[in-house]
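Translate sequence into structure tokens.
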Amino acid sequence: MKTQARIAALGGFALLALIAVIPVASVGLPPILDYPNHLARMHILAALPASADLARYYRAVWTPVPNLAWDAVVPMLAAIMPVETAMRLMLAATLLATAGGAVALHRVAFRRWSVWPLFAFLLLYNRMLLWGFLNYLTGVALMLWALAAWMALERRSIWLRVLAGTVFATAIYCAHLAAFGAYALAVIAMTLTAPADKAKQTVAALITLLPGVILFLLAPTSGAENHIDYGNPRRKFDLPVSIFDNYNRVFDGATFAAVLIAVIAGIAIWRRIVVHSRLGWSLLALLAAYIVLPSRLLSASGIDHRLPVAIALLFVAVSHWSDAVTPRWRRGVAIALAALFLVRMGVIEAVWLKADRQYEALRPAFGHIAGGAAVAVAAPASGVQAGGMPLFHFGALAALDRDAFVDTIFADPRQQPLQFTPLAAGLADHPRPETLWPMLAEGTLPPLTGFTDLIVIDPPPGLDVSRLPGTVEFTAPRFLLIHLTAPGAPAGPEHAE
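Result follows.
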């Protein structure tokens, strides 16, 4: 019986993993809002030592900011493979590590193999992924594995447990601060409900968190602006839908509602779903954090937006069907959820393939940009949305294809190891894309001193191209490339550090 359960669990994992990575493997550029920007940054970090053009604009300054999962790994992979391949490999690894972490934690908690934690595959393609919160999602995957390791080593040497816990906790901190906070709450809640030596286990857990706390105090993040914004409290009720929110609001909302009703009924009414007695407190700790956390804290935004996916994954890992559920019902539920997974993956694959074809049609535009150019971007604020074919950060690929400066590149010293040189910082000190776009629509575009090209995303309706400050080099639906004929003083090598 145990052998059959193990074969079903591991075989099911292998099959679902294969299906889950099909969208990643079948496209060149996943339609994830921030993905082009992350991709461009990885290229810059990998190619910076050998590129004089990039060195004029960018520099790598490594500090212990809690947002480094991909920045630490992808550039190293890019030394042995194309950076675009390295990015997609990292994306696939993050998805599979997340599902694998749920399986590992469930196995340790319940000491049995089961197909139940395979429901985590339903949660992999969520709104946080489509926004491009990649470091955070990697941190959530590490959190699940860390909790599994902490529980698995409970009866081993305390020093071995502290050592493993410290490695995991520090890795989670380096991945993302929000994931580190979620892990800290979960592991402390677990130790406070330990069957014995609660004080000893809690102290051990706190010791494992200490390096992350020290790194945070040393990081530029700790000196960020003291800004707290709770936003609209009613959003707390609709944000959990993000765990299923992909491309069809009606279908995804109905999926969330159906699953939520089934879970609540299965726990409170039918008594067919049980939650692990100790890890349930970890789940409650994250739920409480979701309720009280603001939407913006220090330099980070969407703090509470991020937690629902971590809570949902943790729930899958720490819950199980009760012994009252017959094998027939278990098969029926598993088949129904597998069918739902296939339908959702079919929708995702269709959207990703369509977006990839559109991206490929736009990519030749960068061939009209000179190597080492300085590119400004104008884009509507409405473009900062996940779903469909996001283009807001597409212009960042000029840094990948032409070693150019692009003013939208993520280079905040509180969040990334990539920083601007004084030359680039001067170029970046001009209106943001969402400010330039309405100026362009009104015909009041300011002089873009130092820039050689302008990319316009979703050009304003009725835009008179004859009034643009340059020549149109490439035009397509939703995209316009203008070579600036009078950009002001061009950025020259003499300005480089």
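Note: The mean pLDDT is 92.
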